[in-house]
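Hi team,

Filling in the usual template for the complex we talked about on Friday. All components are listed, including any nucleic acid strands or ligand strings, so the model treats them as one assembly.

SUBMITTER: L.P.
PURPOSE: interface mapping
COMPONENTS: two
RESIDUES: 572
SEQUENCES:
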Amino acid sequence: MKKGSIKKYLLCILGIILSIIWISPFYLVLVNSFKTKKELFTSTLGFPKKMLFSNYKQAASDLKLGESFVNSVLICIISISIIIIFSSMAAYALQRVKRKSSTIIFLGFIAAMLIPFQSVMIPLVAEFGKIKMLNSAGIVFMYLGFGCSLAIFLYHGALKGIPSSLDEAALIDGCDRFRTFWLIIFPMLKPATVTVIVLDMMWIWNDYLLPSLVINKEGMRTLPLMIFYFFGQYTRQWNLAMAGLTIAILPVLIFYFLAQKQIVKGIVSGAVKQ
Amino acid sequence: MGRGVKMNRSKKPKKREMWYWLFLIPSIAALLFVVIIPFLVGIYYSLTNWDGVNPTKFIGFINYKSLIGDQLFWNAIIFTAKYAFVFIIIINIMGLGLAMLVTRVIPGKNLMRTAFYLPNLIGGLILGFIWNFIFVDVFQTIAEKTGIAWFNGWLSTTNTGFWGIVIITAWQMAGYVMIIYIAYIENVPMELIEAAQIDGASPWQQFKNIIFPLIMPAFTINLFITLSNSFKIFDQNLSLTKGAPGNTTQMITLNIYQTAFSQDHMALGQAKAVIMFIIIAVISIAQVYYTKNKEVEQ
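RESULT (copied from the run log):
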């Protein structure tokens, strides 16, 4: 018994040490974001002697924080809403109507997941440029195109667990398909919806490459794009750069601590079903 | 009479047809215009002299032939393959080790899970910048203070650039791999382990003979997710090394990006992109076959 508890303590200590190593990069970013340039060079590892908030003021104004944050939030919310609305409807049609065309279309969506983004990005940007769609509307449509396959797959799996006798009862009562789906079926798909929100939020919020090709214009840039320019500007002024990075990390951390359970569940079901 | 019945019958499917296609059209349109058509057009473009300016002419396989002598491209492929090999081994050992640790009954295991998963939430671009600071500035400080030469000159050589990318992506994705292992480890029935303990099995025997066979599916999932991910890595490469020194730490995606958007060789970049697709497709098809065979065996 005693041997077991010693082992438990050792494992616990190992876990604590590893956890500290794991979050130490965030510690370094945070403490150095409050230092002056000089203090950062003389003591990189320690606490700041005086909390210097002016770094944040400078970083927020250089990142055009108000604008880029709103851009990021809007693109994230609109894209995810559209992915959820159209993917759940498509999955419903494909799962409920059993015939050959459904199977073929479903397999088409799944097969498209094989194609990596980098294999289509060059012609995609060229074609959308020709029809003047390199803008916010264009990027939302692109996120639907890249995101619908996985979402349809997840909804399709969830729909199998909802008996179609429910639909039939509603249809007999005079509900049309549209209302049957939105009023009766869609609320029952909530777990799948949460999974889609979690996976797509982490993807779209953090995405750099697609926005850099599509909305890399004054006034349209998202937070990752601004961070990219900002960091290039301040590679010699680490204290400012660290304040900028802290600003970029903070929303994600808040989101994580609010929705940790759902995030972990979403990751597992997303990965296992792929 | 007979005709009337027939008409009714043909009317009904038509009504069904309407909602069916209305529900499907937005997603199909998006997939077609964003993925399928650019993909097919891309294959055609890779067989032309397309540069975005001059009129496009069909030139056959000339782009692909010129890739044979493209030292930078081969360098990127070899660098990426080497990275994938090292990364997959390290990430699976780390992920499994962390999962074994935090599935034990120890105090604070939920906080530990949170800590290990944290980096995976943040975008590769930002993580790359954070580690850029650590490798360049913090390591330099440690080297000066302790005099340990190992901390000197990170990211200034190909080798440290390589290990830099390995360290940052392993740190980022170990938590993800861990979560998938945890999901399977927690499904291992406790009775099995208790029975083995009563029979006097050592911890290693318990792991080898009971836990590992039961978490084999997690191993397969993680293996293929990490394998295909390591060929798609872009952000971390861009923000950590940008290919420096001298393009020797350039991975496939960064090479494609620079060929197309920095040098304006759109057709050549697209030929490289098609080759990248083939690599990813082979990995994914191998996974499907492997998983199907396993399912048959069980």
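MY TAKE: The CA atoms of residues 106 and 132 of chain A lie 31 Å apart. Chain A is about 80% helix and 0% strand.

Thanks, L.
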